[in-house]
Specification:
This protein has one domain. The model has no long low-confidence stretch (mean pLDDT about 95). It contains five helices and no strands. The longest helix is centred in the middle third of the chain and has 32 residues. It starts with a helix and ends with a helix. It is mainly α and about 120 residues long. Helix 1 packs antiparallel against helix 3, helix 1 runs antiparallel to helix 5 and helix 3 runs antiparallel to helix 4.
Length: about 120
């Protein structure tokens, strides 16, 4: 059961990270006429968020596959990943989720659910 929770959580956050990358150009264009520097910064932030989520999912998956989910190092990495996802969820709740855009509104829930799945994979 622990492994299943971990694999589901990892898969969900990897897909969610990819979903952050796909609309990057549309997100930047949605800000209208802004400077090229601001466009680059917005694109960078959107891409970094996507890659961070993908990295967290792949990292959790790799430590579980290589070390096993019950290995001490794997558990530490899973806890750290869960905490990072919770921090990112809080940040998103305080910023992007306050917009009218639905993906940003559900983002904190997705991150929190995946963090809970990873914590459950460690403690159960």
């Amino acid at each position: 059961m622990n492994e299943i929770l971990l694999y589901i959580g990892s898969g969900v956050i990897i897909v969610w990270g990819i979903a952050h990358l796909v609309p990057t150009k549309a997100i930047v264009n949605g800000f209208g006429e802004i400077s090229e520097d601001n466009k680059k910064i917005l694109a960078m932030e959107s891409i970094v968020e996507g890659f961070t989520l993908i990295f967290l999912g792949v990292l959790a998956l790799l430590v579980a596959l290589v070390g096993g989910y019950d290995d001490t190092v794997s558990q530490a990495v899973l806890w750290a990943t869960a905490v990072m996802l919770l921090v990112m969820a809080l940040l998103t709740q305080l910023t992007g989720a306050r917009t009218s855009l639905i993906p940003y509104k559900i983002c904190p829930f997705v991150k929190t659910i995946v963090a809970v799945l990873m914590i459950l994979a460690v403690v159960l």
